[in-house]
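Re: beginner question about structure tokens

> Can someone show what the tokenized structure looks like for a real chain? I only ever see the sequence side.

Sure, here's an example I had lying around. Input first:
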Amino acid sequence: MFDELGTKLDGALKKLRQRGVLTEPMIKEGLREVRRVLLEADVNFQVTRDFLGRVQERALGEQVLKSVSPGQQIVKIVHDELANLFGDGSPTLERAPSSPTVILMVGLQGAGKTTTTAKLAKRLGREGRTPMLAACDLQRPAAIEQLQTLGEQIGAEVFAGEFGCDPVAAALEARERAIELKHQLLIVDTAGRLQIDETLMDELGKIRDAVKPAEILLVADAMTGQEAVTIAKGFDDALGITGIVMTKMDGDARGGAALSIHSVTGKPIKFIGVGEGLDDLDTADPQRLAGRILQMGDVVGLVERAQVSFDQEEQEKLSKKVLGQGRFTLEDFLVAMKQIQKMGPMDQLMKLIPGASKMKIPAANMDAKRFKHVEAIILSMTLEERKNPKVLNGSRRARIAKGSGRPVSEVNRLMKQFKEMQKMMKQMKGMMGGMGGGGMPGMPFGR
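And the corresponding structure tokens:
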């Protein structure tokens, strides 16, 4: 997400960061490079112009020019103004005075509307709200079946209208059912089209008027660039959307749509889709998104992923063993590795760690295959060998290598890394005075 944009922006700001003294011509020259980067990323021309105008006005202030570190001050200004492009403050969802709160999902075909509906239900369900889904795209049987399947996967009830019937009546019936079953939340999936047309908007307007949603969320495909901004404006003019969900942000999107859409429509991005999994929906917090673009990481995002992915019971057992008893075996190593794998691809996780983008870590060390190789090696050991690796002599290591299909050198490297991790765990126990506490052991990837 924002990888290419972040790398190019970092390069554009690098010269400014490295200078001990900045003059007005230097700043203007640096911002011209930033302008080129933003336009190449398909950011709206007027949005780019206004953005750079604000940055330049603040950057040329006497306080910055006389600062001890003017380059860092300018980076801070760019960060703040990037955050402003996404909206004011952390986005929230409105609640209706009485249950259920209705959220209307709208958008064109192919934007990921139905999947996003399920993702949102799962996310809000984790927050303690009981969601119900309504399949009101009654023109495509596949859309109804898809939402029913997704509902089963996340454990949410789905009200499905009949194919070919009136979607407005179906939405009203779904709302009555949600009231009857005491659901706090009703998320309505609606029909899409290949492009905006009067028939679609008329149908969506009738559903809106019937169920009176607290939120109308437009699901927009980030891959379509500035076309997504035009689509958002069309939906807002017709329906009065309250927020935007940007999907496919993990793809090859250059970031221009995400940086432009709030400035053009005045409506905030509330969520971003960062993967195909049903947990891959992040809150679009402006400060955190700006941090990701400038390669500052996103610790909050990393913690959120851990909270969703980690098995709490396994986590507590592991923490108690490692920090309480000072023991860390290859069995524990395997548990920790599987927990981390649940959080997503390692290259994505590294981008959330501040400073990690500057670390020269070989791509092979973050390859998912590396996890599989390590897992195969450990699973080729006996229970005794996993609990007491000291017994691993040359013949045992040769047997393990043969059983896992990996060379003996990889087995030896894993054992060396494991010993280093054991030392680290003992140090952690000493620092914490044996009090115990949370924390997931890190995974070694150095060769």
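Each token stands for a local structural state, so reading them left to right follows the chain. DSSP finds 20 helices and eight strands in the chain.
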